[in-house]
Design brief:
The protein is an alpha+beta fold. It contains 16 helices and eleven strands. Helix 4 runs antiparallel to helix 5. The longest helix has 47 residues.
């Protein structure tokens, strides 16, 4: 019953996010097939891949609006947690919530990838149709000219033609002009470099020159573009050479798509997938990416809060979340310029010190982190004290495996915790 109710609420949340191929009942039936598996996954007894399967199914059902991602993530992070763990005070609430966030990140990543695949496929289809129409126009001008003109003028993506001999624009459609923010009537007879402006050409200039010289037949890449009115966009640009029957370049055909919204959505989803939703700190995934990319000598400080479980038990998870947020802010302020803090999960935090000069610097960083946590935390007007145990390790990333490093700091942290509880002093 909980799985079906989840499907009903999810389908209701997607109303207005556009899925003209399905009725509301059909959407509920589609999502109903994932309910039990999602609840099992968030409880830790099922496969997390179900989130990606659900995203693929929604994209296939013609959900293309980014609003569908936003609403689905809210359902996965709120309703799914409620269905799997109705009592926020239960011991499983934290792990259930963390797995729900991970499911939401998996869903968002797959949904974004699906949207990009659909958009690229549509762009390739448009380009192929335009190229076919142009080539037929050369061979059978009277027969295919109307077809090309219809594609050219009616396309939702920008299409423009350039004379291969002179590098001057021959014609553009309205979508091309709108993408660049330049009036369509002002483009014919001007060079591409003149239209885009030198500040926007970048890599495109050298690729365009290679295209004109015949060194390459096509290119495609994303580039930032500044319109004449000062607004900034991200454009997906493709250009292809159209040759005559003897293989000589006749003209170039270019296709432009404004992907600013898609790029912003992808950037936001990447951020959400790599940062802790509660504290805003980098999460486990991003921390280990940074650690794997680090070179030379690095230092690692592994912190585990003391007494945090008691706050959750006595004051509730809301109070515990406020303390974790405050801990994240204090650690961030205590970091040196070459340090980055992350939340591994629960009440565990970790700090990476890149290009660490030695144990003295690492000990100084560790002391600063502990000092940042000494003052009491304000929880709804009540001051509570939260201590921390810390373990440190100084290693050469070129010769030490990540799992060995993490084992070393883990052992050091628990040794520190034991010594602190035994009043034996500092264990680092």
């Amino acid at each position: 019953m909980a799985a079906h109710e989840l499907a009903v609420r999810w389908a209701a949340a997607l109303d207005g996010a556009v899925a003209p191929t399905l009725t509301r009942a059909q959407v509920e039936e589609l999502l109903d097939g994932f309910g039990e598996r999602l609840i099992a996954a968030v409880r830790g007894t099922g496969d997390m891949s179900v989130a990606r399967e659900a995203a693929v199914a929604l994209v296939a059902a013609n959900y293309r609006d980014p609003l569908a991602v936003h609403r689905s993530v809210l359902v996965l992070c709120k309703d799914l947690v409620t269905d799997a763990c109705p009592d926020p005070g239960c011991a499983d609430y934290g792990p259930v919530r963390d797995r729900a966030i991970e499911l939401a990140a998996e869903f968002a990543a797959e949904f974004t990838a699906g949207l990009r695949s659909v958009a690229l496929a549509e762009q390739e289809t448009t380009l192929a149709a335009a190229l076919t129409a142009v080539q037929e126009a050369e061979a059978r001008r009277q027969l295919s000219e109307a077809r090309f003109q219809a594609i050219f003028e009616g396309a939702s993506v920008g299409i423009g033609t350039v004379d291969a001999a002179t590098g001057k624009v021959v014609d553009v459609n309205n979508a091309f002009a709108e993408t660049l923010g330049v009036p369509a009537e002002s483009m014919p007879g001007r060079s591409v470099a003149d239209i885009l402006g030198p500040e926007n050409m970048g890599e495109a200039f050298s690729l365009f020159q290679r295209l004109l010289s015949g060194e390459i037949d096509r290119f495609r890449f994303e580039t930032k573009h500044t319109k004449p009115d000062g607004t900034h966009t991200v454009i997906d640009l493709s250009m292809t050479v159209v040759r005559d029957s003897e293989g000589k370049p006749r003209f170039l055909i270019g296709v432009t798509v404004d992907v600013t919204d898609r790029k912003q959505l992808a950037d936001q989803l990447w951020y959400d997938a790599h940062h802790d939703s509660l504290t805003g700190l980098p999460n486990r995934l991003l921390f280990f990416d940074r650690l794997a990319a680090a070179t030379g000598q690095v230092g690692v400080c592994y912190l585990d809060l003391d007494g945090f479980k008691e706050i959750n038990d006595r004051r509730g998870h809301t109070a515990g979340d406020r303390v974790l947020c405050d801990v994240g802010q204090r650690l961030r302020r205590a970091l040196p310029p070459n340090g980055v803090a992350a939340r591994l999960g629960g009440d565990e935090f970790i700090v990476l010190v890149e290009n660490c000069s030695g144990q003295d610097e690492l000990d100084t960083v560790a002391d600063s982190l502990l000092a940042a946590l000494r003052d009491p935390f304000d929880v709804a007007g009540l001051l509570v004290q939260v201590g921390a145990s810390i373990g440190t390790a100084l290693v050469d990333t070129d010769s030490t495996a990540i799992d060995e490093l993490m084992h070393a700091v883990d052992v050091a942290m628990y040794r520190d915790k034991a010594l602190r509880h035994g009043a034996l002093g500092d264990a680092r």
